[in-house]
Amino acid sequence: MPKVLTPLLELEALGSKCSAGAVAEVLRRHVDKWRREPKKSTLLLNDLAELGKAQVAVQVLKAMRHLQVPVNVFHLNVAIKACRRAKAPVSMALELLESAEQMQVRPDGVTFNAAISACDVHGDWEKAVGLLSDMAAFSPNDISYSAAISACEAAGEWAASLALLQDMLQAQLVHLPAFNGALSACARGSQEAKARQLLTEMGPLQLQADVISYNAGIRACEQSSSWQSALEILFGMAHASTPPDTVSFNTAISGCGKAGQWQRALQLLSLTTPRPDVITYNAAISATAREGQWLWALQLFRDMKQRLKPDAYTHSSAISACARAAKWQMALQLLEGVPSTSAQNAAFSAALGACGEAALWRRAVQLLESMPRRQIQPDQGSFHAVAGAYAQAAQWQRALDLAQLLRTEVAFAAAMTAAERAGHWPTALALLAAMGSAELRADAVCFGAAINACTAWPMALQLLEDMETQAIQLNEVCLSAVVACAPWHIGLQLVEGLGEPGYGAAISACEGASQWVPALCLLSDMSNIRLALHTALVPALRACSAAGRWQEALSLTEHLAATPVDLAAALGIGLMECEQRHAMGPERALHRRLAAQPIAPLAQTALRWAARLRAAQRRQAPLALAPLVAELQRSPAGGTLPYHQAAAMLRHVVSQARAFDVDSIVKALDDFGQDLGWAKFAGGDKGEAMVAALRGCAPMQSDPHAGVLEIGTYWGNSAMRLASALGKAVPITSLELDPVHVAVARCLLAFAGCSSVTVCTGHSQQLLPRFSSCQAVLMDRWGSEYDEDLDMLQKLGLVKEGTLVVADNVLTTAAAGYLWKTGPESGGPARFASVLVAVQEVVDQSEDWLSVSLALPAAAAASAAASAEPAEPPPGLRELQRRSEATRRLVVQKGGEVAAEEMPQLRREALEVLAQHGFAAVNKKSLTGQDVQRGTFAHRHCVIKDQANGADWCFLNNLDLGPQENFIARNSILAEYAVVGFELGYSYENPTALVVWEAQFGDFANTAQVMTDQFISAGEHKWLQQSGLVMLLPHGYMGQGAEHSSCRIERFLQSSDDDEDDIPDFADGFGRRQVQKANWQVMNLSTPANYFHALRRQQHRDFRKPMVVASPKNLFRLRQCVSPLADMELDTRFQRLINERDPEIAAHPDKVERLIFCSGKIYYELAAERERLGLKNVAIITLEQLAPFPFDRVKEVMSKFSAVDEGDGVHPGQIIWCQEEPKNMGPWSYVRPRFVTTAREGFHTDLVMRYIGRRAAASPATGYPKLHAAEQEAILREALLGTSDARAEDNYSVQRPSPLLGHQT
Per the record, a Pfam family (predicted)? Predict the structure, then answer.
């Protein structure tokens, strides 16, 4: 409690008006008392100092001088103390000290100590040291020295703090805080040796170090990354009778983490006393994060959550651990739990880094854009993380834009890395030059990216010279990059002194030049200087193999057991040499070595049996399959071990299929792929397309011994399908580098009895030169590698007239280079007639393209070459090829998560770019039926005939709007059963095509009812086979008689499998989930926009369902039936139900007394009659999608028009279903119970719906126009007015208001 209340309260009451004059006015009222009792003024200044009111204290001191109140040294000391406590500028305290002479006050040691302490607060060590020198007359004490040393420590001046400590010891002053301050200064300066020396010197001075001293020493070791010294100090504290506290352990754990000793950090965490706090866990998690130990980091995070509350730094550390391991999904999950603090930026930057490590630049951009919505301002680190994501994903254009925006060294380095990964070396060099003009200093990282991007080694050497000129340290990354692009003999000169990357690059250069001797010499040098061989062993193996030095290649495989090398690639090369030279002994040895690796037990079994199968094949002796089947069935699957899926697939086949029965094996394979969501083999329509392409190959038909060459095994699946289709006389050779894949394929083919297939181990680039001829080639690799294989096939003369080349997944993997070389405008050595076939993947049902190319005869190729100048691929295709190569590298490096994220986007980009250059799959849109080219009602005219030559011209294929899909319109005969069956089969085989069949009149579909009932409505339920067939069935009552009015829509609704009593879930996404579960869709559409969206939705969904459209007839020419273009633009979609279209009625739902539901063209007749009568109390709703029933949308409408009478549970109210069809036909029987279910489950009411429509009849419609018109008029009046009988007193008394209409409910 302040001692002098009145002056203090008056001064506080002044607030912001506390000027010098106001302070003097307050003090003037108390001056007489202060003169009598000087202690009162000292107490006031002390209170102001305690409250941290330095400015007021200085003004009080000045006012005391002005009022001639005696001022003494105590007043001066307290005022300077107030400056220190309020952390006021140092100049204020120094001004008070300098004004002491004017105040006739002689400063003492306390005065100087207070001033030095004020300097300590701001780290103004120079002024503190100066004051210490000025107070020599007062004999500085230990407090003076301690304050000055503390000021030096705050400024990081460890040398000055040690000098002051030495002066203090010379003055025979010993003070523990001074030593602690000096220790802290050494810690700030990372002076571990000096700190340990100080701790040692404290003993002889009989000064007992406390916890603060030891913690400062540990912190100095931590800053110097000297984890051993930190542990020595930590465990030495117990011997010095000073038990460590939590801070001691925290600092030591942090030191271990910085030194990469994460295991030591975890041990210290378990020893922490009294107990770990949040900072302890943060340090341990950071230690594991630094080394990429994300599982340990997450385990610590979970342990911590059970005891403490993680803060933002905890989340940041755990996210960083996931980032280093490219576990971006886990990082984003952790980000959701980050508390709202100032440290959120660090957590978001770590999550952005996780996306960057995984090359998921879109996720990174989305995360960056979400930060402002969470009230987090992105900092420079956040933008740099996005730039890193661009670099990882080779998005050089986006990285360039960001670099020009940020204009920082980090952003430019990321842009150059992105350009290098994308193969844009001019961009990388231009960015390097731009950094100089932007006054940014390029470092070794920037030069390394530019050198990596160089394709010419002289340019790379020039960049090295530029680095030396700019005094930039040459690092191994830059030198290794030069070695990689230079000729092998230049690389030999530069490799000296480099590490594993440099030697690996030099050996790769030797491999490319088939220089096996230098490669082995470099490998020997690496061994002599104790470098790890894992980066160089495989290139050396390939160099020996390419030079035909197979003995040397086999000798190199001896080093594989102790090297963390890709065993599949390395042993595959060794096994290739053994198989080609029939070296049985080494081959068995390599198989044993591979089987001893930690792979799935089933895969080990396959390897052993594959070796036995090869031995039996050489001896031409049969091998019993029963033992193979028995061993595969009892071997464990292997959980998550490598190759467990392939091995499980093999076991599934031998368990579920019959030996030598290819059909049962194919079914087992397809079932396996569907059940596990695994599409590692060609199945479904893709497999059928491959077989059809090769079976139709002319050389296969003329020469039964023409061979098929397959690059990539599909685990033997595709070779088995081909062997079954082509017969045993056609030899098939399958090439595969991975020996486990080869073993599984050999076992599968032996089980299927495909003796015409030979599976060879080895890479295609090494095996193709050993073949002399082939008539067909099937390729299944990454698309950017297809053109490499095609180049080698042409170079070796394996592609000649009539050779068929089939390439899979040319869309998904963006095989732009290959498609250009097999396209009509290619300037390559061979010309092809090519077609792209749209196929569907087995598992994800996504579209892909199969490229089928036939080499032209020499004359045709020469003619094509003469008629077209050799051309380079256009820039768009070149860029797509580079994008494909970059994505391939990412998928190889980062794995499945990146593939799942990047591949769909690559496919979308490829689809857009390839379409721009005229590449498109065949038969994307087709319309067949009776008179569909003209249109039965003269409404289409999509195909016209040239009367001169009879040629067809389809304007839909000539829109001149850029690249477009192919549209086919074919008139069919009046044999609906046959035509619908054909179109259904076509929709099965080409699920990416929009297949439409249109009847001339709706009831013509009667003769195709067998197809409808047996296949279309129930096909998916019976055979799990989806179809997207669209049936357009003209429907509508226009007085044309019984045979041309109704498509019998009730039959289709009766076959719909949604239960009328099923309780619907009205949650979000109900409509999509409902269609996915249904067997088909039944529509009666009333607007052009909805018809457009129905067809578009049918094509763009990721699943397929048949769709029956009761298409209108008179609406083609009805002026009211129009849709603005805005209804078909972006952000518009199909409407299952269209609400009231009159804006005035829709705006006042409380005034609506009658609610009419209908479907199809009768809406326009009802709306026209309502307008004629001037009714504003009747709302009309159209159900566009009848099945599956839109429960959720009907509920919304009924909620909106809640004022409408629903009836009393016995008699109907004013909710009406109106239809043109007789009561026993049309949608009434289908919709009625579903309206009741909607009311029951949505509103807990018993709805009795009113029926308005024709009475029950045997015939769909009358043949008398006058009777038709009378019926139609009665329907409209009854629906809108409630009765067609003006004499009726109420609606309920009329059971049949008109003899033309049906009974009421």
Answer: PPR
**Which whole-number Å values give the CA distances from 1040 to 940, 1023, 1114, 1164, 1270, in the listed order?**
21, 40, 12, 19, 14
- Contact between 271 and 287 under an 8 Å Cβ cutoff? The reply is no
In angstroms, the CA 318 to CA 1170 distance is: 67
pLDDT at residue 682 in the model = 53
What 8-state DSSP symbol labels residue 848? E
CA distances from 322 to 244, 334, 339, 418, 602 (A): 32, 9, 19, 23, 32
Contacts of 637 (CB under 8 A, 6+ apart): 600, 601, 602, 644, 647, 648, 651
pLDDT recorded at residue 718: 83
**Integer Cα distance of 413 and 468 in angstroms:** 19
Paired strand residues for 761 = 736
Task: State how far the Cα of 1181 lies from the Cα of 1298, in Å rounded to an integer.
Answer: 24
**Bridge partners (DSSP) listed for residue 1182:** 1138, 1158
* CA pair distance 103, 706, nearest whole angstrom: 115
Cβ neighbours, 10 Å, residue 1148? 12
**Cβ-based neighbour number of residue 1175 at 10 Å:** 16
Rounded CA separation 467/1077 (Å): 65
Helix (DSSP H) and strand (DSSP E) numbers for the chain: 62, 21
Query: What distance in Å separates the CA atoms of residue 718 and residue 712, rounded to the nearest whole number?
Result: 9
Please state the rounded mean pLDDT for residues 360-379: 84
Q: Quick one: average pLDDT of 958-974? A: 70
Cα(1297)–Cα(1274) distance, rounded to whole angstroms?
9
pLDDT in tens, 816-869: 888 888 887 665 566 788 888 777 665 555 667 888 888 887 644 444 444 444
Q: What CA–CA distance (Å, rounded) separates 648 from 664?
A: 17
- What one-character-per-residue DSSP string does 1139-1167 give? ----HHHHH-GGG--EEEEE-TTHHHHHH
User: What is the secondary structure of 1173-1209 as a DSSP string?
Assistant: HT--SEEEEEESEEES--HHHHHHHHHHTTTS----S
The one-letter code for the residue type at 1082 is: V
- Phi, psi for 1286 (deg, rounded to 5): -65, -20
Q: Which of 162-166, 1078-1082, 1116-1120, 1205-1209 has the highest mean pLDDT?
A: 1078-1082
Q: What is the pLDDT of residues 257-316, one digit of tens each?
A: 888 888 898 888 888 877 888 888 989 988 888 887 888 888 888 888 888 888 888 888
Other CB atoms within a 10 A radius of the CB of residue 109 amount to: 16
Sheet bearing 1154-1158, strands edge to edge? 1137-1138, 1178-1183, 1154-1158, 1215-1222, 1250-1254
Q: Rounded CA gap, 508 and 514, in Å?
A: 10
Q: How far apart are CA 385 and CA 229, in angstroms?
A: 35
Which tens digits make up the pLDDT trace of 1040-1063? 887 878 888 888 999 998 888 877
Residue 845: burial class (beta carbons within 10 Å; 0-12, 13-18, 19+): middle
- Per-residue pLDDT band for 421 (boundaries 50, 70, 90) equals confident
Return mean pLDDT, the chain: 79
Element (H, E) at 836: strand 832-840
Say how many C-beta atoms besides its own lie within 10 A of residue 1055's C-beta.
Answer: 17
DSSP string, 52-117: T-HHHHHHHHHHHHHTT----HHHHHHHHHHHHHTT--HHHHHHHHHTTTTTT----HHHHHHHHH
Contact in structure between 613 and 759 (CB atoms under 8 Å): no
Please check whether residue 1247 is in contact with residue 1207, taking contact to mean a CB–CB distance below 8 angstroms: yes
Q: pLDDT per residue over 546-579, tens digit each?
A: 777 767 776 776 665 544 345 666 777 777 877 7
Distance from C-alpha of 1277 to C-alpha of 1156, rounded to nearest angstrom? 12
CB-neighbour burial class of residue 5 (10 A; exposed 0-12, middle 13-18, buried 19+): exposed
